[in-house]
Amino acid sequence: MRQFIMRKRYLPLWCFFVFFSAFSASPGGAAAPEDPPHKSAILIEAETGQVLKAHRPDAQHIPASIVKMMLMLLVAEGVERGAISLNDEVTTSPEASRMGGSQVFLKHDERFPLSALFKALSISSANDAAFAIAEHLAGTSEGMASLMNQRARELGMKNTHYESVHGLPPDPGKKPDYTTAYDTALLGREIVKHPLILKQTRIWRDTFRGGKFILYNTNRTLLRTFNGMDGIKTGYFKEAGFNICATAVRDGMRLIAVVLGSPRSKQRTRETRKLLLEGFRLYRKMKLFTALEKKDRSLSVEGGEKKIVRVIPARGVAVVVKRLRAPGITTHLRVPLPVKAPVKKGDRLGEIEARLGKKVLAKVDLLAAEDVPEMGWLQWLMFWNR
Fold first, then answer.
1. Which of 6, 150, 173, 178 has the highest count of CB atoms within 10 angstroms of its CB?
2. Per-residue DSSP letters for 336-353?
3. Which residues contact 290 (CB under 8 A, 6 or more apart)?
């Protein structure tokens, strides 16, 4: 009886504990996972574009100064094709001189070479430099925004639209810029193809106005502390939160991490570092079919002056796989036999594929590396009389 009374006494407390546990647990009995300290994020490998990790990568978000990445790309592309020169003289308009936020305090009618303003844009995210460059390249900021949107469409950035060239908060009645983590990663993939941009974005401190003005990179914390980091761009204002598109290269593998909408700068840095470290730790980039290019591999030929033909893959292929699974990759030739003469150098004779278990990782054409003429009638006669 005493034991029964004791159990009855503690019954309300036990019921409360059961109810609280059920309320705080997610369906299936597991504790509900905490939301990450950002609105969206993605990690990709730059050469292949392979997505290694993602959280709401297609959710539209205000990019803030990440908008300037597209302006940087258009400058680099214009310089490389000879349409503009870094020695071009850029004159500051009244509107450019009135830009707020991060700036180098350009004055109306001041003149600087494009190289100096591009440095201010790329390193310290100067809004006045961005506006002056945009007017120099396209005549107006609206014209440059139109060119930026056109280039975004060409890159497959389906959920991006630029209203500005700098990413500042829109004026009353105006629409904000928007993009996604995935689209920003696509833009990052294109940017890392241009050494002109990375030459600037890897610098954490420089000068302007002949050394009188110090430029500090808005990404300087990661640039100074993360091995292999060399870009690209941060962005912030209150409604957008703290954003970043960062890239680093280690052991021949370049990763791009995008984090959008972090509530604090330190959280943005921490999440970016976490994504990149996880990518470098877990994954490895492999160049497939390169060994086949160096070694002689041949196939039998019927009716040719030679009995064999050397073959090579049409190209090498890069794939990204988890390090522990990399030793399990195998290559397989798929060739319709027999191969009959005549064979010309460059003829497609089949294909070669790489597999990880049953999954096909890559597939390329197998090409003839040499000519094999058809056997002549005299050779046929000698062949059959042997």
1. 178
2. PSPEES-B-TT-EEEEEE
3. 316
Residue written as token pair 């925004």: 145
Specify the residue for token string 């294909």: 351
Asked if 231 contacts 68 with a C-beta cutoff of 8 angstroms, the reply is no
Which residues, listed in sequence order, are joined to residue 229 by a DSSP beta bridge?
248
In eight-state DSSP terms, residue 98 is T
Structure tokens at 274: 């976490």
Instruction: Say how many C-beta atoms besides its own lie within 10 A of residue 5's C-beta.
Output: 8
Q: Cα(116)–Cα(113) distance, rounded to whole angstroms? A: 6
Q: Each residue of 304-347: pLDDT tens digit?
A: 888 899 999 999 899 999 999 999 999 888 998 889 999 999 99
How high does pLDDT run on average in the chain? Answer: 89
Residue 125: CB atoms within 10 A of its CB come to: 27
- pTM for the model stands at 0.85
- Rounded Cα distance between 254 and 356, Å, is 22
Alpha carbons within 13 angstroms on the beta-carbon side of residue 276 total: 29
Residues 6 or more apart in contact with residue 231 via CB below 8 angstroms: 191, 192, 197, 198, 201, 202, 219, 245, 246, 247
- Are the beta carbons of 176 and 168 closer than 8 angstroms? no
CA distances to 22, 173, 316, 328, 365 from 358, rounded to whole Å, are 42, 55, 21, 11, 20
Strand partners, 183: none
Q: How far is CA 1 from the centre of its chain?
A: 71
**Mean local confidence (pLDDT), 348-357:** 93
The structure tokens 């002109």 sit at: 196
**pLDDT category of residue 291 using cuts at 50, 70 and 90:** low
Write down how long the chain is. 386
Dihedral sign (CA 81, 85, 86, 91): negative
Task: Tell me how crowded residue 163 is: count the other CB atoms within 10 A of its CB.
Answer: 17
DSSP letter for each residue of 59-74 = --B--GGGGHHHHHHH
Q: What is the pLDDT of residues 99-143, one digit of tens each?
A: 999 999 999 999 999 999 999 999 999 999 999 999 999 999 999
DSSP state of 243: E
Question: How far is the C-alpha of 45 from the C-alpha of 248, rounded, in Å?
Answer: 10
Separation between Cα atoms, residue 88 and residue 90, nearest integer Å: 6
